[in-house]
Design brief:
Elements lengths: L1 H18 L6 H9 L3 H61 L1 H45 L3 H19 L3 H56 L13 H14 L16 H5 L11 H12 L3 H19 L10 H24 L6 H23 L5 H20 L5 H32 L5 E3 L2 H10 L5 H5 L4 E3 L4 H20 L6 H29 L5 H16 L1 H12 L13 H28 L20 H18 L10 H26 L9 H19 L16 H11 L5 H12 L5 H13 L17 H6 L2 H24 L5
Antiparallel strand pairs: 1-2
Helix pairs in contact: 1-3, 4-5, 5-6, 5-9, 6-9, 6-11, 6-13, 7-9, 9-10, 11-12, 11-13, 12-14, 13-14, 14-17, 14-18, 17-18, 17-20, 18-21, 19-21, 21-23, 22-23, 23-25, 24-25
Protein name: Exocyst complex component
Family: Belongs to the SEC15 family.
Keywords: Exocytosis, Membrane, Transmembrane, Transmembrane helix, Transport
Length: 832
């Protein structure tokens, strides 16, 4: 059983060897060697080989006859081949003999071909060399013509294209050695031209800026006339057109370069008028040319750094103002023109070159310039004290800002600075109007304005809003109630408002902001300047009472005109005066304060004049009793009464309608009259109670009584209408009481003194009570009996022999001492 399986396995392996590729029989053979029947397999394999050999032999015996037939035919062909060989040899020999002439012709043809090839090579070399020579000659011509950028491009083409094609020739080597030198020369020349260009635009930047500002001004006038059109950039060509123009200038307009490095001649005004843009005044070809040259040379970064560095230096020079710039407007204009010219050039370079300057660089320069401009203007404008110059400077700054804003530069800081200068402008205006108001006050005659014709009346009413129907009905000639001061001041107030409005123009402020600014400035003018001027006029030494009365009338009319000023401001600003946040004018309070000051000055001046009369008073306190007629009033008092009558007549004869001046003759006149009477009473009482007056005679009391009667007569006469009953007499009541106390020296003297003293004070000091006790107990008095004193008194002998008048003088002295003490106590609590 095992032998059968082994035989079957060997048979399978043999079939696998016969049918499998020889590269894959390794595993099959390994299975044979791994087994134990290796010899059996070899025997089996030899038997299989022998079977195959027998089959091969059978196959060869089957095809052997055909092979023999093929050999026989091949032997026959060999003979034919020998014959053919002989024929071919013979034919070759004949052909060789016949081709010798052809070979000679072919050799000649070959030589011709070689010569032709050499000629073609020579022509080719010349074809490559001639362009080199021609280009080098053109390079020399361009250098001689100072066309450096084309020369640089030619040298670049010569070095990179033509010389490599020409080959290794000596002249090519010489040219290659000269090309770096030519580039160095071109670079140095371009840099020299750039330096000349920078120096020239530094010199002519004011002309460039002047042209740009003039164009901005023209554009602004056009924009204001056609408000519906949007604002276009001023004085600038489009970016694409400018860029194309820059390239054209750098390539085809290099011949325009002059010794002035690109700045056109501006001496000819006609040629300047034909320039349409500020950039057209400048030939930027040196910049473009130098930029292209350095770009080709691979030094663009070097050129950019150098250009920016130089322009920064020029910016610092341009931004440095002259020390006397603030003296004239031309100094500011030249300063602004240079700055505008500088940034117009930079803006044009920014838009016509690719990366020479970028937006960040220009913005950095502008930030530097803006800070220096604002600082310089703040410093120099602070020296200015002329409002017209400040206003012109403001207009120039606005035009300067609008010009640069048209080129895309932010200018908000300039307008903020203008608002700061607005405060300074307001202070300068206040100083100017202070001088104006003082001149008006100094030139005013403080008398009503006489008007003789309708034309004159309309002239004054057009200057000042006078609304008085009663005055209009009066026939000519007539007088206006106020003096020349009123219409002049009202006109000056309007002029001040116009001046404030002029400054507010073109500041891009809303109507509300302009209205608020004007009202605040006007309030300052009213409360500070005009108020101080009015007080100055009121406080002057040579101002009389009539002038003060006229000041009161003037301020009253100006106070009534304040609402007209409100309407005037509302009309010019188009902001209603009843707006919620609108600032109100303080004119009413200003003129009220001035009127009150004038009234106080009237009272003070009148009292001072009364004091001058009272200084003439010379009472003889020890005068005897006059015999016969009663004493007459003192001369000084008569003059004083006459003066007061003439003075108060001014109040009662005021011009104009009674309604207008009812306040003046009523309140002011009554107050002045009452104040004068009280001052007279107080002054006379002080004379009477002067500590230096130790004794007063009956004659002096009679003279004082006459003067008091004169004063009371003046009060009863009613120098000023409006007092009720004997109100004015109350001013002399204290003086009359003291006089009565001093004159009633008979039986009721002590009783009157006691009543008078207890009337004025309730708690007298102990010393005063002691004096009263002595008088009551130890000094009994009688009209008919001599004075008797108790014997214990040390003065009994003297008092017994004194007369009645001497005793009365003693009583008067004691009474005066009591009155001094009494009035001294009362002054601490109330004013006499």
């Amino acid at each position: 059983m095992a032998s059968v399986e082994t035989a079957a396995e060997h048979e399978r392996i043999l079939r696998e060897i016969e049918s499998t590729d020889t590269n894959c029989i390794g595993p099959t053979l390994r299975s044979v060697y791994d087994g134990q029947e290796h010899s059996l397999f070899m025997a089996k394999l030899d038997a299989r080989i022998r079977n195959h050999d027998r089959e091969i032999e059978k196959m060869c015996n089957h095809h052997f006859q055909g092979f023999v037939d093929s050999i026989t035919e091949l032997l026959k062909v060999r003979g034919e081949a020998q014959k053919l060989k002989s024929q071919v040899t013979e034919t070759n020999r004949s052909i060789q003999g016949d081709g010798k002439e052809l070979m000679s012709s072919m050799e000649e043809l070959r030589q011709c071909r070689v010569q032709q090839r050499n000629i073609a090579t020579t022509v080719d070399k010349l074809t490559h060399c001639l362009p080199v020579l021609e280009m080098y000659a053109r390079l020399q011509e361009q250098m001689d013509a100072k066309r450096y950028y084309p020369a640089l491009r030619t040298s670049e083409q010569l070095e990179q294209t033509c010389l490599p094609r020409a080959g290794q020739y000596r002249f090519c080597a010489i040219m290659a050695e000269n090309l770096p030198k030519l580039r160095m020369q071109i670079r140095d020349t371009a840099m020299t031209q750039l330096k000349d260009f920078l120096e020239s635009i530094r010199k002519h930047s004011d002309k460039i800026g002047e042209t740009a500002i003039r164009q901005a001004q023209l554009q602004r006038s056009l924009d204001s006339s056609v408000s519906t059109q949007s604002r276009t950039p001023v004085g600038r060509r489009s970016g694409r057109e400018a860029a194309a123009g820059g390239v054209t200038q750098s390539n085809g307009q290099a011949g325009r370069l002059e010794l002035d490095a690109g700045i056109l001649d501006l001496e000819d005004e006609e040629e300047a008028d034909q320039v349409t843009a500020a950039q057209d005044l400048v030939d930027f070809s040196p910049v473009y040319r130098c930029l292209h040259i350095y770009t080709v040379l691979g030094l663009r970064d070097v050129f950019e750094n150098y250009y920016r560095k130089q322009r920064r230096k020029q910016a610092r020079l341009v931004l440095q103002p002259h020390s006397n710039m603030h003296e004239t407007l031309e100094g500011y204009r030249r300063y602004f023109n240079q700055i505008v010219g500088f940034f117009v050039v930079e803006d044009h370079v920014l838009h016509t070159t690719q990366g020479l300057v970028n937006r960040a660089y220009v913005e950095e320069l502008w930030e530097l310039a803006l800070s220096k401009i604002v600082a310089a203007l703040r410093t120099h404008s602070s020296y200015c004290d002329d409002p017209d110059l400040v206003l012109d400077l403001k207009n120039l700054i606005v035009l300067f800002a609008d010009t640069l804003q048209g080129y895309g530069f932010p200018v908000s800081q300039l307008f903020d600075m203008l608002l700061e200068i607005r405060e300074q402008y307001g202070e300068i205006l206040l100083k100017r109007w202070n001088v104006t108001f003082r001149q008006v006050l100094d030139q005013d005659n403080f008398s009503p304005i006489p008007v003789s014709t309708e034309q004159e009346y309309r002239h004054y009413t057009s200057q000042f809003p006078l609304q008085d129907p009663e005055l209009e009905k009066l026939p000519f000639p007539k007088k206006l109630p106020f003096s020349e001061f009123v219409p002049k001041v009202y006109c000056q107030l309007k002029e001040f408002i116009y001046a404030c409005l002029k400054y507010s123009e073109d500041l891009h402020l809303s109507s509300t902001e302009v209205d608020d600014m004007i009202r605040k400035s006007t309030n300052l003018l009213l409360t500070r300047t005009l108020s101080h001027c009015l007080h100055y006029a009121i406080k002057k030494k040579n101002v009389g009472l009539a002038e003060l009365v006229q000041v009161i009338i003037n301020t009253t009319h100006l106070e009534q005109s304040c609402h007209f000023l409100e309407e005037f401001i509302s009309n010019i600003t188009n902001v209603p005066s009843d707006t919620a946040n609108a600032t109100k004018l303080y004119g009413t309070s200003t003129f009220k304060d001035a009127r009150h000051a004038a009234e106080a000055e009237i009272y003070t001046g009148l009292n001072a004049k009364i004091d001058q009369f009272l200084q003439l008073a010379d009472y003889d306190w020890m005068a005897g009793v006059p015999s016969g007629a009663a004493p007459t009033p003192s001369d000084y008092l008569l003059d004083l009464m006459a003066f007061l009558k003439s003075t108060f007549s001014v109040f009662t004869n005021l011009p104009g309608a009674p309604v207008e001046h009812a306040i003046l003759p009523g309140k002011v006149a009554q107050t002045a009259c009452m104040s004068a009477c009280k001052h007279i009473s107080t002054s006379l009482l002080q004379l009477l109670l002067d500590p230096e007056v130790k004794q007063i005679s009956m004659g002096a009391l009679h003279q004082l009584n006459a003067d008091v009667d004169e004063c009371e007569g003046f009060a009863r006469a009613g120098p000023v209408a409006g007092f009720q009953g004997d109100t004015l007499l109350l001013a002399f009541s204290d003086l009359r009481q003291v006089g009565l106390c001093l004159r009633r020296c008979r039986r009721r003297l002590l009783r009157s003194l006691l009543s008078f003293f207890f009337f004025f004070f309730f708690s007298p000091p102990p010393a005063f009570i002691l004096q009263l006790i002595i008088l009551l107990v130890f000094v009994p008095y009688s009209d008919k009996r001599p004075l008797k004193v108790p014997p214990s008194s040390p003065q009994s002998a003297d008092l017994g022999t004194q007369s009645r008048d001497t005793f009365l003088e003693l009583i008067f002295a004691i009474s005066l001492q009591c009155l001094h003490f009494t009035l001294g106590q009362n002054r601490k609590n109330t004013r006499v």
